[in-house]
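Supplementary Methods, section 5.1.

A reviewer requested that the exact input to the structure prediction be made available. We therefore reproduce it here, unchanged from the version used in the analyses.
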Amino acid sequence: MVGDLIRLKLTIQRHTLGWKRVLGLVAGVLAAAITWAVVFVAEPAARTDVLLLVLAFWTAGWMIGPVLTSGAAMLRPEYFTLLPLPRRRLGAGLLASAFAGVGGAVTTIAALALIPYALAEATGTAAIASAATAIVGAALLVVFVVALSRTVYALLGAAMRTHLGVELAAVQYGLLLSSMTAGWAVVRPVLESVPAFLRDGFGAIPARAVLEWTPFGLPLRAAGEMGAGRPLPALGSLALLAAATAVVVAAAIALSTPHVGNRTVRRRRRPWGSRVLTRPRWLPASPLGAVVGKELRTWWRDPWRSLEVRSAIWFGVFIAVYGAIAGVPEIAGLAGVAVALTVALSGANLYGQDGTALWQLVVAESPATVRADVRGRQIGLTVLFGLPALVLSAAMMAATGIYAYAVPILAVVIALLGVGCGTALVMSVLGATPGVDPHRRVNATDAGENTAGIFAAFQVQLWATAPTSAMAAVLTFAGDSLPAWFGTATLAVALVNAVAGAWIGGILATRRLAARLPETFAKLR
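The structure derived from this sequence is encoded token-by-token as follows.
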């Protein structure tokens, strides 16, 4: 069975997008090469500290990577629910299949960097024993990180049925987005300190005393003890690593079994926001009002839609954190802009996220209902992302005191919200990508993946808001030399930009959906 699962996974991987496979291979080989390089480049006194930190990054990458890239969802336990297989045996087979592929191969190559480390730390016959210990430690480490990855992924999937789990997943996505956009503010001083770290290691910081007792530090400790002629402590370190590996493997097998219970935890209270929409009635008793109410409730209650909103908020929060770390308060002021920037990204696959629920629109198809559906979704996006963007902008300006940038920040937020909601609906119709149907979702990445649509939506949103961004930039850097009316003109341009983007996007989405509604539903099925 294990061989069948491995072949099935490799077959699925061969049919994924070619550029994804190439990118993963290049990134993995580069990371493995860096791991080997640090063993030879670092000074002898810092070699252990440097390799400890590199192995810590490998462990963190395996914990976070599958969650962010949906790679672990290739073989879902639910696919095998009806097969006459023992649950533990199925879990063990799925865990074994996780080692197949580029990730397991490059991790093994990187872990084998422990061999030159062991040879460099010992001399004579002790070097051979140290290298043998390093090989055993490397094998255990690879098993540990892969099993830990599966365990974390499965636990996060179970946690997605709770509010806390959604929040934890949102923190990860927000941290990733903020690192990609503003991480340079922190990475630059870190890169400047790399030569000193390669020379001195952690220095006076007692980090090694803590890290060497972690699972990724135990192989280094074991190889060092064996090279120093102390076999009992070395074997003890390997035993500790083997015990930790056994625990994680058992947890991964137990969690890699089909989930047949409720997809979400039973609610013990009425969801927040219900009374706001129903008592007193704020929305009109019309098709548009019905769609807006449905969208607001869905974005607020559905864990996978709520994950998008919360990720956007954490994106803005971490942007502010990076600005504070770098000592640049102007970056912190862009927290609300960051939230508004995710409107097109988060809504680029709205119909794909709804799945086969689109049948309700199909059976009630008419020009009025399609128009109301598109416009209602646009309003829901604007409200759900616009309020956090404005609140976060105001909070960051109050915290940093950069009130002079209030007008350009507000203008950019308005333009991004309007253009973003229009772009999102166009991409949702043009590139509707089927994912796991809502009632069958388990993991954080089950809502569907529309990479091309997300990238296109991001580019369109940036270019379509260029008029507002240009005026906001002029107002920011040359505000004192501009006439007093320039700020008002910037806000007016932003408002026109937003309304035009939302209106044009809505018209294009409505026409496309009305012309190809049955085909879109068939695609999502």
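The chain has a mean pLDDT of 81. These observations are discussed further in the main text.
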